[in-house]
Amino acid sequence: MLSVDYINKAADKALAGKGLTLEEVKNLQTASDGQIYSLFAAAYTIRKKFRGNKVELCAITNARSGACSEDCSFCAQSSFHKTKVPVYPLLEENEIYARAKRAQKAGAGYFCIVTSGKGVKDKKGFSKICRVISKIRSKLKLHVDASLGELDFTQCKALKEAGLFRYNHNLETARSFYPAVCSTHNYADRLKTIENVKKAGIELCCGGIFGMGETRKQRLELFFALKDISPECIPVNFLNPISGTRFERKKPLTPLEFLKIVAILRFIFPRQEIKVCGGREANLRSLQPFLFLAGSDSIIIGDYLTTKGNPPYQDLQMVRDLGLRTN
Ligand code: SF4
Q: What SS3 class is residue 19?
């Protein structure tokens, strides 16, 4: 059985900048509900040492919604699913810019432009996105991120030139579980885009979605796949089963099990930004403040792509009430 001493020794290793072995992480995964607060305390110490007291706030916008050719089982925007999400083409530049402005006003430091679909293949649409990135960079005080699906290297270079700070492309899950999640593109396709992003010198935001029916072993597989990639930011999503999707009936993990994932990621990635994203409100419920104690240093504020989030002022208040800072 896992002891508090074992947890603290693993934390000392992370604090000393030494990587944990697969066996050690596997052992941390067995922390019981009674031991979990020791795990959080250790993860909090690691977060404090490497990430300080600051919480990063990121707002996302759905710049092109629905009608996606891909069949990701969790996603309300897939054309394989019957859901109530709005369907619209790429928004006009002025609208995307106006949303960025509102995000800054609401307290965000990062603004992420997201489009549904396998990628942005039409040149006009892609140029539009590059132009609006440049405009936001020159007129507002925001880091601009994007999540546009697959990218080739030329597109990555264009985005970098436009001033893109970070690109989001998740692994989503373990390679061994991926066929249950998506069949229209594969894991190797995802790795190709990730490679292009890194080669272009854009910061990488890469993580996954938890609670889709993957085993603990598969979570471990994902953790170490992410470690190999070494992204600057690891987004952690908790499945929020949406009616009409293939995963609509998935049984959620407990809030403590979700938080355990966050804490373990902090042991593996002591220096990186760990961002809790979609599914936070629905899955953590009253335990949302615990995500910072469990080692996260970043959240999405406002609404998600297809679901509602907390009003931003509430999240800002939560951060301040915890004695953390947002700038
Ligand atoms: S996650 Fe992206 S690629 Fe997959 S169905 Fe949704 S919008 Fe399409």
A: coil
